[in-house]
Write a structure and sequence with these properties.
Elements (H helix, E strand, L loop, with lengths): L3 E6 L11 E4 L8 E2 L5 E2 L13 E2 L4 E5 L5 E6 L25 E5 L2 E5 L5 E11 L4 E13 L2 E6 L12 E2 L3 E4 L3 E10 L8 E8 L3 E2 L6 E2 L3 E8 L6 E3 L3 E3 L7 E9 L8 E8 L4 E6 L10 E8 L6 E11 L2 E11 L1
Parallel strand pairs: 9-19
Antiparallel strand pairs: 1-7, 2-8, 3-4, 5-6, 6-9, 8-10, 10-15, 11-12, 11-14, 11-16, 13-15, 16-19, 17-18, 20-22, 21-22, 22-25, 23-24, 23-26, 26-27
């Protein structure tokens, strides 16, 4: 009996911090899932970050950030007996055993600013810090928002597709153990399009046998590329909600925000707690999330200090593209 199961993981916990993401491949087919806050939960260590600065070229302002790493795991339950456990796997010569095996893609996100008809050239580097050879096929997908959630659409299936213009310097890529490979992708923005994001994907083609198990998997990693093409940037906030602290949870301040404009937005937010007289009691940052056009997400901040009984006001402030969005709500601590 053959059973095929596929997981898709997106929106890592530090969704919009600058840097590079590293996925840990050491555990046996971890069940990566996306929870309500947009982070990935499961066994093992999933992400490390290394910081990088903004990069300028003639036509685009490119800001390397960390956001979606799109990973698909296809698992086949096989009838073969499990692999023997009598001896540990041999260590390859020159392999650094202090570094956990992982594969990493950099940059994980590119934010581009320009106009219709312009072109973008970007280098993507995949590092293989494992003892296994990986084979990939390069492909591009448009990233759209449908019913409030992101979907990946194959190149050319969307009207005025940006992904359809993607040209890769290599179509097939093989990354040897403990090495890296770099691929150049060239993208041209159509004269007219509603698409504002694509994912340039290293799509895994070889099945990897996991240690101590008869389950194999293939892995695909992608870099998100977003495009800001017009000044139509607009966020629509909803009511601020305050959840009181309990014996097992901190006080939380949350707010749903929708991107009702046509451009991607990366808001940076802060929640402040004010006394009844308006004095600042404390503050806490909101988790960072990117909003594509049409997307609606909940932003949450935790306040860990204990508040004495009294009347308070929660004030939420978000900064984006030189604008400020402010909302507030009163609450009482009994």
């Amino acid at each position: 009996m053959r059973v095929s199961v596929e997981w898709t993981a997106a929106c890592l916990p530090a969704d919009d911090r600058q840097g590079e993401v590293t996925l840990d491949m050491a555990s046996d087919v971890p069940r990566w899932i996306e929870n309500k806050s947009g982070s990935i939960v499961g066994p093992g260590k999933f992400a490390t970050y290394s910081w990088s600065n903004a990069v300028n070229n003639n036509k685009w302002l490119l800001v390397v950030c960390m956001t979606i790493v799109f990973m698909q795991l296809q698992c086949l339950a096989q009838t073969a007996a499990p692999l023997p456990q009598s001896a540990p796997p041999a260590v390859q010569r020159g392999e650094d055993t202090s570094i956990p095996p992982s594969i990493a893609l950099s940059p994980a996100v590119v934010m581009a600013r320009g106009t219709f008809g312009q072109g973008l050239t970007q280098l993507l580097t995949l590092s293989n810090k494992t003892g296994t050879e990986f084979a990939f096929e390069m492909e591009a997908n448009d990233v759209l928002v449908k019913d409030g959630k992101r979907i990946f659409v194959p190149a050319g299936e969307t009207e005025h597709s940006i992904a359809a213009t993607a040209i890769f310097s290599q179509k097939l890529v093989v990354v040897k153990p403990n090495s890296s490979a770099t691929v150049e992708v060239r993208i041209t923005i159509p004269p007219e399009t509603q698409v504002r994001a694509v994912v340039a994907m290293f799509k895994g083609t070889n099945k990897i046998q996991t240690a101590g198990s008869a389950v194999g998997m293939t892995a695909s990693l992608g870099s998100l590329i977003t495009f800001n093409l017009t000044p139509n940037i607009k966020l629509q906030p909803e009511a601020v909600r305050v959840s009181p602290a309990t014996d097992t949870a901190n006080l939380t301040i949350s707010q749903w925000i929708a991107n009702v404009g046509t451009e991607p937005v990366l808001p940076e937010g802060l929640a402040a707690v004010l006394s009844a007289k308006g004095a600042l009691v404390g503050k806490s940052p909101f988790e960072s999330k990117r909003l594509l056009p049409g997307e609606r997400l909940e932003f949450t901040a935790e306040y860990s200090d204990q508040l004495p009984p009294g009347e308070y006001k929660a004030m939420c402030s978000f900064q984006f593209e030189g604008k400020t969005l402010t909302s507030d709500a009163s609450f009482k601590v009994p």
